[in-house]
Structure formats: structure tokens, C-alpha cells
Write a structure and sequence with these properties.
Elements (H helix, E strand, L loop, with lengths): L8 E6 L2 H13 L4 E5 L10 E5 L4 H11 L2
Antiparallel strand pairs: 1-3, 2-3
Amino acid sequence: MCIMNENWQCIHTTQKEHIAEIIKAVLEDSGIKCFSLSKKDSAYLFGEIELYVSPDNVIRAKQIIEREKF
């Protein structure tokens, strides 16, 4: 379980839950701890899901996301 603190940085946002879960799994398979924060409205299902990593992993995580073309 990832515990968020004020230093974690948002590296990606998406409206699609399945994309967020795939990205999270790929990052974790690469050894990067990641957590998602859903900002979707529960009644109308609009909004975004944000993915966060520690500052040490921001560049590497963004490179993985870009390489995989999510």
C-alpha cells in the first residue's frame, strides 16, 4: 500500500479507469511504487483519475508512459 505525502507528484491523468490501472500495473512491474486518486464524481462518472509517484521516480515513470504510448 502506498502512503501519500506532500512530496508525491502527479505524473498522468486520464478519464478511463482501465487505462489508469494498466499504467499503474506497468509502473509497479518496473519497480515504481504508484497510487491512483480518483476525482470522478460518483453520481455522474465524470472527472479524472490521477497517478502519483515519488519525486525520485517522476522522470522514469514518464519515460515508461511515453514509451508505452498510453
